[in-house]
Specification:
mainly alpha
Length: 163
Amino acid sequence: MRTLGILLLSLTPLLFGAEYRTNLRKYINFITIFKEFVIFAKEQIRFTGRERDEIFALATRDPRFNKDFFKNIEKALKHGDNIEKIIKNSNDIRLKDKDIQSITAFISGLGKSDTEGEIAHCDYYISLFENYEKKLSSIGSQKSKLTLGLALSLSAAMFIIMI
């Protein structure tokens, strides 16, 4: 019975490591999805001339996007709420302040100029999120491997010390 308790306690670092890796994957996935949304918005502006509110309404019906996130943004735009605050509170992923500012700036900038200006606005944010996504992917794979190795080592050390 004692050995079982020791084994369970020593698995705790593995659980924390798995949680960290899962959150990191969710974070990278969210950045990728938002980049896809910017591409989607650009297509909607270019080919159909849709307005910002229509684009968000369409995004809530598109299975590629996080429906709750885009519904919350759509509601905030209709009611004139603070978008940055909504982004911080509506996402289960802990976004960095830099990400929140970029997303807020993109959303706030939609609908502020003519079609060509809107497309240029989208192009800028597409390249911004692509670069960020590439960085995160390489850093994410390194951190993921490091976390797994560290968690395994710590679990083994805890098990050996407790026996």
